[in-house]
Amino acid sequence: TANLHQLKERIKEPTMKFSVFAVTFALTCFVSLSQATDVGQCQGGKKLEATDVTISNCEKPPCKLRRKSEVSIEEKFTPDRDLKTLTTTVHAEILGIPLPFIGVDNTSACDNLYEEDGTTKAGCPLQGGKKYVYKNSFKVLEIYPKTSLVVHWALTYDNKDVTCFEIPAKII
């Protein structure tokens, strides 16, 4: 009986290890397959590919921006020339009127730039032809009215768009 008990324990251990591995692997695959967000193109900015922009909790427009929450943005891009610095330019267009996003608009993008791997900080200056990942987030303030809008998000150099996208959204 003791040998039978030991045999059962030996069988359980690899099975448990495999189960933990399988669950971990499945979760890793799920997280890494997060969906890109379907964004629109701005005039003047570099054309972004369909997989270049990811907005948290938003795969397709309109994005639902919940008040008292934080939304994260990730954008993959390759500048076509060397850039000394980069500025984040963000506004919401409501009834044709551009309103800046408080705390994000007209701020340096340099602290939010990463190498292509998405984890190694890159900062500024940027090299033309090299791939970068821009990561940022913004708070949807409680004072924002519940309304529909278009978010205009650009990375600019010398007041000209390097990349730019627009996406319909709704503050809820």
UniProtKB/TrEMBL annotation:
Location in or out of the cell: Secreted
Entry annotated with the keyword Secreted: yes
Main location per the UniProt record: secreted
UniProt-listed SMART domains: ML
A single MF term (Gene Ontology): sterol binding
Residue ranges constituting the MD-2-related lipid-recognition domain according to the UniProt record: 39-169
Record's keyword terms, sorted: Disulfide bond, Secreted, Signal
UniProt key word Disulfide bond: yes
GO cellular component: extracellular region
Any matching Pfam family: E1_DerP2_DerF2
Domain of life of the source: Eukaryota
Family indicated by similarity: Belongs to the NPC2 family.
Name by which UniProt lists this protein: Putative ecdysteroid-regulated 16 kDa protein
Native source species: Nyssomyia neivai
